Fold this sequence. Notes:
By secondary structure, the protein is of the alpha/beta class.
Amino acid sequence: MITGQDTNFLKDKLHEVFGYHQFRGNQEEIIRSVLARKNTFVIMPTGAGKSLCYQLPAVIMEGTAIVISPLIALMKNQVDQMTTVSVDARFLNSTLTKSETNRVKQDILSGQVRMLYVAPESLNKEDNLAFLKKANISFVAIDEAHCISEWGHDFRPEYRKIKSIIDSLGNLPVIALTATATPKVQQDIVKNLQMENAQVFQSSFNRTNLYYEVRPKKNPQKQLIRFVKKHKGKCGIVYCLSRKTVEEVAELLRVNDIRALPYHAGLDASARVANQDAFLNEDADVIVATIAFGMGIDKPDVRFVIHYDAPKSLEGYYQETGRAGRDGLDAYCFMLYDHNDIQKLEKFNKDKPVTERDNARYLLQEVADYAESFICRRKQLLRYFGESFSQKDCTNCGDKCGTNLEKYKATEHLLLALKTVQATGERFRINHLVDVILGEYNDYIKSYDQDKLEMFGKGKGEDLDRHYWYTLIRQAFMHAFLEKDIENYGVMRIGEKGHKFLGNPFEVSFPKSIDLESTVEDDLEEQETHLQDNTKAHDEVLFDLLKKLRKKIAKEKNLPPYVIFQDPSMEEMATVYPTTRDELAQINGVGMGKVVKFGKPFIDLINKYVEENEIETASDVVVKSTVNKSKTKIFIIQQIDRKIDLEEIADSKSLSFDELLDEVEHICYSGTKLNLDYYIDQVIEGDRQDDLYDYFMSAETDNIQTALRELEEEDFSEEEIRLMRIKFLSELAN
Ligand code: ADP
Ligand code: ZN
């Protein structure tokens, strides 16, 4: 068995199959863990490259890897992507006919299939299970593992049965992967899959290429149109709360000349598929969808995600915004926020059972806190996922970051808040803690006898209202004085730093609160220049041509364009101009497989473009001297046309006179007519010109040394002979 001990082996495979030069983040360690048949738990944000963590082992290991994935809609896509890199992958789901299913099974038994994508419900089917027991399975990958948890944003009951099914197939290593992992969800996954012994690989959730911004929803239609128009031609998703809004917004965009389509559960299946395909195939730029819908959009080049209405949870928000910029290029996350949206969402929950309703309310509260707070969005999101992040590290955050907020000394108040948390037994959520601090006499407080606490009502005072204390406690959480209880949603406990502070208080300052509403709507434009400031280094004209070509070929092959080449690869092409197959294979994300399948028309296009625009290409750089010559030659011809003295031309190109003559001869011999009379007339007298001309007319050879010897008596210099030979050749030969 290959354990992948050899670093080069894995790297070579990575390049050979996927065309990548380097592993990203901890991909390599993860792959080694899978190859060593260990249970592996991968927590990585969207776009970080989870798929590769099972795809590469699947290519290397013997047998077929089972990949469990929740969305049937995505499977075909994933299989297509594998096919473009010549990896045999299949899927098994309800869309296949009986004979197609049999075909897949046969090929798996023959051992040729590297990866089998299945939905959990297909795994449940008796005959599929019986079949899988016969097959040689290498390992099981559980993608979107958060579907196991009710605390995720995408709970799927069938996911809870996966573990027992895998067990029935034998002792198979499992790799579980997710992009959403609050500590609570992580715990659920580990418990449910019994992966306590697993190797855990957790990456930072910081999506550095995403730019987060929340704006008060004042004139949403205008705000939306303005935003989308600014990003015209770019592809994006707009999330809305209801189907009705989806339809209205899609229509609004359409009448404003934006190629937008709706997507919601109320559309019939064929319309949904058609709209999704149009989006994937670049026939529509914007898709407007309900947030309830888990779109299964795996498009890497989504450049913006707009929340026209508030999301239901921060997990959901992170996931939805996470669909932007999967290719690693900059993308924009823009939320229009109105507190009324939160109340509307709360109303939807009123018929739910009590616990479920409470849970939903806490999740919503987090959204409100996120949107209404003045703290760096990125920091808030990361803290929500249990990560600490220093705000000063954030250079790419919309409306809040970068504004130097005024600070105030919070030491005394922080002490009071932490003491309250402690004295109430670390069992309460923020609102209740604020009640105690403000001395609210309600039944709940009385039932706990909390009105007898020393802290009760200690926080009353001018300017010290509910909002103030609420914000202070959130700040205490953001700065890790407080932690949230994993088991009990929203319950605050003292963190390690909080204990230190309580034991020996030190000075603490928090930023002063600012009112979201006070930020002017019209600074939208100013905000957005931020994104566009990152001016592109690549050749935009060529990039657009490549995109058009990609779209055309995608149509012919019936594939989404990004399956052929992704944008970062094409940006690289538009930077280094690969003009041969080998050069194209060197582009990150291309590889020989894709060169063979799709390379030709792209190479042709680049060659034509390079020629027409006289661009120095990658191959020119390698054979440096020829490049310079070709560029220099053009320069020389132009200068001679303008009757510039040869000395001057030589000087301006830092050539010796001899070297310049070499160039000129070269130009001449390759067939270009040059008129050097203006120069020759200055430096060689008329009779001497005639003598030399006659000599070349009758000479057997145009060799200079021969001429020097034969014309010895006339005392011609080598330069004179060469100049006249050029004149002679130009006039007669060319
Ligand atoms: P995730 O499933 O984590 O959201 P994907 O597996 O879809 O992410 O990968 C995101 C993008 O990163 C894809 O476009 C993929 O081709 C690219 N990618 C993955 N690994 C690498 C790598 N080692 N080098 C370059 N690009 C990579
Ligand atoms: Zn920030």
